[in-house]
């Protein structure tokens, strides 16, 4: 408390870097817990479509759900080995084909609405999630930028204002993500998710779910 800028960033990194690391197989089980439908314990809520779907329908089929890396794993080329590739603070259940449509695009406004996921838009170099999860997406990206500072064998992940980051360890568009953080504050689902990850899976938190105002205190 009372810190801003680089001192706040450093303090948060020191706290959240201490986590239990999961295997990529364990992520399946974790997501069935972290993203459980509050109205149906047999289902998970899919990030981009908002669809409630059976926990057991995970896999690679066209209408199955799979594990979406919100911070695209190619942005820093960290893959799915234990580390940022298995950090459930940015891994979410998504429809297989919608996940494929998002690909590794940066986040921004605009594009054509996705037929299978109304309210989500995409073009050649960016993806815009539905309004109800815009803040969720922003705070997951911000978490990754603070958690992975290049000190533990993984790339130093950073936000920037580009939408053509490719394999560089950057994710954009920062100015838009900061807007989304303010437009869509944490709801009960996102807060529960953060708590479940802390209590039962990784032992660390996304500080921007607890304190969305810290995004502005760090990045302006």
From TrEMBL:
Signal peptide: none
Stretches the record annotates as Disordered: 76-104
Ranges of compositional bias, category Low complexity: 77-86
Annotated keywords: Hydrolase, Nuclease
InterPro entries: Endonuclease-I, His-Me_finger_sf
Protein name (record): Ribonuclease
